[in-house]
């Protein structure tokens, strides 16, 4: 057992705690009815934790079982006393029932060591209650203390006698006459008549523990343990008594090297090694402090003498006349007379009124001052501090003997010297343009076309309307900033500024007569200019209509076929007409969807007779730069229409001729064709 204790002590880590200390702590907490699964651990060792919890649980289980046994002994009934399904209730009821079982066996004269297959604890309780009060003829045991049991267990077994000497008895502990086995004190004979088992004196309630002590069963005996610890400075002895711990001998004191340790009951004292001489007293740190005998003793000197303290002692001097404050010795030096502090050019009051008093004086202070009875001078009254917020409307500044008021920025002092009036800062023209006075301040603002500076909030800066995020949309062509405003301009030729001053309007040179076209040419107005056009029909074609001096967008110059007699090639040529039309386009700023520019209208109905099997096919033959155009067939008002669309953006200035074909197809063969030349002029501007 000693080797196990050493092994478990070594397992506790850095702190040397034995397993017995772990169990002792657990039993103490069990006696206090603490929760054994949540008790504070005294070591980080897992072994110590298990011992703490199990020893704690053992105490609680013994107490619960003891309550059940006492209930069986006192009332003789269990069912009505223990109700519920908790573990504690079940344990108490089991011990109560098992005790009743043992008492019933004793009352019916049955043996206490029955052969029923009961649990271990139930069997112990049953036999203990059966044996309680009945003489034990099979054993020679009695209830003993730890001391008596140790004496008994240390002795050697008695020598066998009579038939025991034959060795046939094979008793576990003692053999008496006629091969009869017996047990040591604290044990009782088992039913086999040879082996012995421990008697639980604590369960039987037969221990001799005193009040304040708890019974703990041991093998062959029991011991009594105090329920309350001894406290700081004491340790619990095996005799269950508390013994003072000598901290000086054990070295657990905290006295410094200059002090000597002296043990006391439950504690210790630190006494300085060096002792102080007469006239000194030693403090807690061992230092020697001078004693002022003049204060510590009552009249250490004789009457008429004055006590003067010295280091470690005192002296007595002859008493001389000392006049108090406001008095001085007379010329004879034998009595004190009043001092007139008010004499002199300024007196004691420094320019204020002075009134002499017996042994003192008093000053009559001027307005704004107050007399200080301790320093005995006239001190300035800080009116701003004594009357905050009641003297001045804004700021109060203390001056000697008075005060003065001032105003915050934006205000001026009123005629009463206390209130503040608003200051009209605009009278001094602080702003570069416009100024608006507000209460306590002013606000600068600017005229239209200007904005207030973010730096000083006073000066006005010109707003560059052309540089604003919307500046690109203010003017159609070009925006020119001016101080406080802006103006728009248009291209030098071909445009004029609209009445709104922002948009540019195209000048129709063909209408105004400012073009330079000859009489044989036709004038066509384009955006930002004009074009002089001359259309001639090819051989075998003649122009339908007269030559126009001005061509509109909707105008079409048409050449129809006119063959010479017997000209078979001309007759077989499928092209019946060649037309010219003119269109002017801008450079689109935001090209998001196709733009429809030309409509080729036919005289063919949209739904022809099925027997005719005819159709019209539109095609772009030449001039489709970068595939910027396409042509789609549409039905409008029951007729077939070819729509030419611009599908890609074009950047001007740009001129092109888009050659289109209107093919009339009958039974899959082109019967005749009309050619349309679209002259497209793309301006460099979007307007």
UniProtKB/TrEMBL annotation:
Incorporated into fibronectin-containing matrix fibers. May play a role in cell adhesion and migration along protein fibers within the extracellular matrix (ECM). Could be important for certain developmental processes and contribute to the supramolecular organization of ECM architecture, in particular to those of basement membranes. The keyword Protein transport does not apply. It is found in: Secreted, Extracellular space, Extracellular matrix. Keywords: Calcium, Disulfide bond, EGF-like domain, Extracellular matrix, Glycoprotein, Repeat, Secreted, Signal. Gene3D superfamilies: Laminin. This is Fibulin-1. Residues 22-56 form the Anaphylatoxin-like domain. Homomultimerizes and interacts with various extracellular matrix components. GO terms for molecular function: calcium ion binding; peptidase activator activity.
């Amino acid at each position: 057992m000693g080797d196990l204790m050493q092994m478990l002590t070594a397992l506790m880590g850095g702190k040397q705690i034995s397993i017995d200390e772990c169990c002792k702590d657990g039993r103490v907490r069990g006696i206090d009815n603490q929760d054994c699964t949540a008790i504070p651990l005294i070591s980080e060792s897992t072994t110590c934790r298990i011992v703490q919890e199990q020893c704690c649980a053992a105490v609680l289980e013994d107490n619960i079982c003891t309550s059940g046994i006492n209930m069986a002994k006192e009332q003789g009934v269990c069912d009505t006393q223990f109700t519920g399904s908790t573990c504690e209730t079940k344990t108490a009821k089991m011990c109560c029932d098992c005790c009743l079982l043992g008492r019933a066996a004793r009352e019916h004269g049955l043996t206490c060591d029955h052969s029923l297959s009961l649990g271990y604890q139930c069997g112990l309780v049953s036999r203990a209650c059966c044996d309680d009060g009945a003489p034990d003829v099979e054993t020679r045991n009695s209830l003993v203390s730890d001391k008596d049991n140790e004496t008994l267990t240390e002795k050697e077994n008695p020598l066998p006698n009579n038939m025991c000497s034959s060795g046939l008895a094979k008793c576990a502990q003692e053999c008496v006459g006629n091969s009869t086995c017996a047990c040591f004190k604290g044990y009782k004979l088992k039913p086999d008549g040879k082996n012995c088992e421990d008697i639980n004196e604590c369960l039987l309630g037969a221990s001799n523990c005193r009040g304040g002590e708890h019974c703990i069963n041991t093998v062959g005996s029991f011991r009594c343990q105090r329920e309350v610890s001894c406290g700081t400075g004491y340790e619990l002895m095996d005799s269950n008594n508390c013994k003072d711990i000598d901290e000086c001998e054990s070295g657990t004191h905290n006295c410094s090297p200059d002090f000597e340790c002296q043990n006391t009951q439950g504690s210790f004292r630190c006494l300085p090694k060096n002792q102080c001489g007469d006239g000194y007293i030693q403090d807690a740190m061992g230092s020697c402090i001078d004693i002022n005998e003049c204060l510590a003793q009552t009249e250490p000197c004789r009457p008429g003498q004055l006590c003067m303290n010295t280091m470690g002692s005192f002296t007595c001097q002859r008493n001389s006349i000392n006049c108090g404050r406001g008095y001085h010795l007379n010329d004879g030096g034998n009595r004190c007379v009043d001092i007139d502090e008010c004499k002199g050019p300024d007196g004691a009051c420094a320019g204020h009124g002075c009134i002499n008093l017996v042994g003192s004086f008093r000053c009559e202070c001027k307005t704004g001052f107050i007399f200080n009875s301790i320093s005995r001078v006239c001190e300035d009254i800080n009116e701003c501090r004594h009357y905050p917020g009641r003297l001045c409307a804004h700021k109060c500044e203390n001056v000697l003997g008075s005060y003065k008021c001032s105003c915050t920025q934006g205000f001026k002092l009123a005629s009463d010297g206390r209130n503040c009036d608003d200051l009209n800062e605009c009278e001094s023209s602080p702003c570069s343009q416009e100024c608006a006075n507000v209460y306590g301040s002013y606000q600068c603002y600017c005229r239209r076309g200007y904005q207030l500076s973010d730096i000083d909030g006073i000066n006005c800066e010109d707003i560059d309307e052309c540089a604003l995020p919307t500046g690109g949309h203010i003017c159609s062509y070009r925006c020119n900033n001016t101080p406080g405003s802006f103006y728009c301009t248009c291209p030098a030729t071909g445009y004029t500024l609209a009445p709104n001053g922002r948009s540019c309007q195209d000048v129709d040179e063909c209408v105004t007569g400012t073009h330079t076209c000859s009489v044989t040419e036709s004038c066509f107005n384009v955006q930002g200019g004009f074009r002089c056009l001359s259309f001639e029909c090819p051989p075998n074609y003649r122009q339908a209509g007269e030559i126009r001096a001005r061509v509109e967008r909707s105008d079409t110059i048409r050449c129809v076929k006119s063959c010479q007699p017997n000209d078979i090639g001309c007759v077989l040529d499928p092209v019946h007409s060649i037309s010219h039309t003119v269109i002017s386009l801008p450079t689109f700023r935001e090209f998001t969807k196709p733009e429809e520019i030309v409509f080729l209208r036919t005289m063919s109905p949209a739904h022809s007779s099925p027997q005719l099997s005819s159709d019209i096919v539109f095609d772009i033959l030449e001039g489709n730069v970068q595939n910027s155009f396409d042509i789609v067939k549409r039905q409008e008002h029951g007729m077939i229409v070819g729509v030419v669309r611009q599908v890609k953006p074009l950047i001007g200035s740009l001129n092109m001729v888009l050659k289109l074909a209107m093919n009339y197809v009958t039974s899959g063969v082109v019967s005749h064709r009309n050619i349309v030349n679209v002259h497209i002029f793309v301006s460099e501007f979007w307007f």
